[in-house]
Amino acid sequence: MKKETRFLCTVFLWLITTIPVLSQNYYLKGITADEATRNPLSQVTITLSGTHAKKTVSDSNGRFTLSGLNPGKQVIRFS
Fold first, then answer.
1. Rounded CA gap, 8 and 38, in Å?
2. pLDDT digits (tens, 9 = 90+) for 6-15
3. Measured between alpha carbons, how far is 58 from 40 in angstroms, rounded to an integer?
4. How far apart are CA 35 and CA 78, in angstroms?
5. Closest Cα partner for 71 from 29, 17, 20, 25?
């Protein structure tokens, strides 16, 4: 019985330490603004290119969020 309990505790500890690492959610958050005036720019399209391309549009305050991203280098384009 003690071996079974020890095994279950080991599996439980492995699960609670491994699952958060596997389920990390990467995101990119920012504000688009005019370079000269620093005023926020709305309706700017933000695109991440690559195998898992993502796209969003900035809101009326220039804010945007791209979520569900993969780790690693990405190419970002604003238009």
1. 57
2. 666 666 666 5
3. 9
4. 13
5. 25
